[in-house]
Amino acid sequence: MQNATVFVVGAGPAGLFAARKVATAGYQVEIFNRDIRPGGLAEYGIYPMKLHMKAGLRKQFAKILAMPNVEYFGNVLIGSQGGLSIDALRDWQPAAMVFAVGAQGTKKLGLPGEEAKGVYSAKDFVYHYNRLPPFSTQDFSTGRRVAIIGMGNVMVDIARWLLIDQPGEKPEEVTVIARRGPFEVKFDSKEFEYVEPFLDRRRFKDELSRIAASLRACGQDIDEVSKTTFPWIQTEPSASHESKLTFLFLSSPVAVEPGPAGRIERLKVAENVLVREGDTLKSVTTDRWSHVEFDTLIFAIGDVADPGVGLPYRKNSYLTNPDTTDADRAGYEVFDGASGKVLESLYVVGWARKASEGLVGKARLDAERGCEHVLKFLEKKGKLSPQESSDIRRELSSRGNGVVTKEDVGRLLAVEVERAETLNQPAFRYATNQEMLQAIHHQ
Question: Could you check whether the bond before residue 134 is cis, i.e. omega within 30 degrees of 0?
């Protein structure tokens, strides 16, 4: 066993695979996680009905936590906004710290009126239906006409939830608003197949006719849409549905207009044109606009890093070493823009390094690659005294955090499996931290 302790902040895929990489090299690893349950987006971002995928990842993560030189401290917030500060972590004298906190900042467009009721970021909305506290108990009510901004897999997941799995009344219409055209979709066709039966073929074809001239002007053939990105419009849906899925291409939201009750009532939408500059296709907003009635708006346009963590921050991201000429000084090291110096022993991996970049597989690769630099740094440092996990646990407990250990996580998962069997449900998950803590300590 190496004489050094490494702190990993965050227990999503990037954090857990980072922990495994460092622990396998023989170092002691202490994981600090904001949530009670480890897993991050693998637990709270993957679509809730993908139970087999979640179960498989949970088994991998359990093996990592079972490593004898890995400790877990859940329900511990790290950050400048009421949590444990980075300086407080430094007081425990870790040899290095790896931040794998994901992209927890909220990304919207800064539109006038976007603080109206019924306007949500996709991240928060997904956290809500995946039952992550405190989002699980907050108001994310939806209405009859829902707009989703963006054309990626997150949009598809949200549409699937609204049209198929959302409890209670389903919306009459879900409209996807995209600043580009049908050839620039970002979703996987296999994912879209869940919602294609709801696609209003007639209105989709009308929308293609509306934008045909704009597409031709930049060299795109509207007739190719049915052969490439939207083959479903050549067929009839397998069943008739009252709820409809529609698209509004070459459109950018300009302003949210709330009604008398403070909830979004209309969305001002500008028309776009596509402009080709060499190999680049750009979307340019025009001065033509219209109003469309919506009572719910969800931004599915990616995520940003959370400035509240306390790391140097600029333009929605944590600052990392810009010197890419030296492989040992790659963009994983935290960089202080004020002093122009690397903050020695601090690293970022996964979505904390590059928000919304890839899924679990890419997070794992990025974490392992980043930790190669951590291990090289530790080798240069020589022998260091390890920090006793019991001391950290004792001090965290004295702060009244309700610290959760990896043994506690095992008890929680066992209780939830038992509850699912009792309720004859495929899965069960507590919606609040209080319920989870009670389940852990009073099973």
Answer: yes
Contacts of 361 (CB under 8 A, 6+ apart): none
Q: Which CATH number is 5-104+304-404 given?
A: 3.40.50.720
Q: Is the pTM of this model over 0.85?
A: yes
Question: In a structure prediction context, what are the per-residue pLDDT tens digits for the chain, which is 443 residues long?
Answer: 567 899 999 999 999 999 999 999 999 999 999 999 999 999 999 999 999 999 999 999 999 999 999 999 999 999 877 778 999 999 899 999 999 999 888 777 889 999 999 999 999 999 999 999 999 999 999 999 999 999 999 999 999 999 999 999 999 999 999 999 999 999 999 999 999 999 999 999 999 999 999 999 998 999 999 999 999 999 988 778 999 999 999 999 999 999 999 999 999 999 999 998 888 888 999 999 999 999 999 999 988 999 999 999 998 899 999 876 665 556 899 999 889 999 999 999 999 998 877 678 899 999 999 999 999 999 987 666 656 677 787 788 777 668 999 999 999 999 999 999 999 999 999 999 999 999 998 75
Apex CA 327: angle with CA 324 and CA 330, to 5°? 50
CATH number of the 119-299 domain: 3.50.50.60
Asked if 408 and 8 touch (Cβ cutoff 8 Å), the reply is no
Signed CA dihedral, 46, 250, 198, 258: sign only: positive
The residue among 388, 393, 369 whose CA lies nearest residue 22 is 369
Distance CA 85, CA 41 (A): 23
- Contact present, 30 and 118 (Cβ < 8 Å): no
Taking the domains of the chain in order of start, what are their residue ranges? 5-104+304-404, 119-299
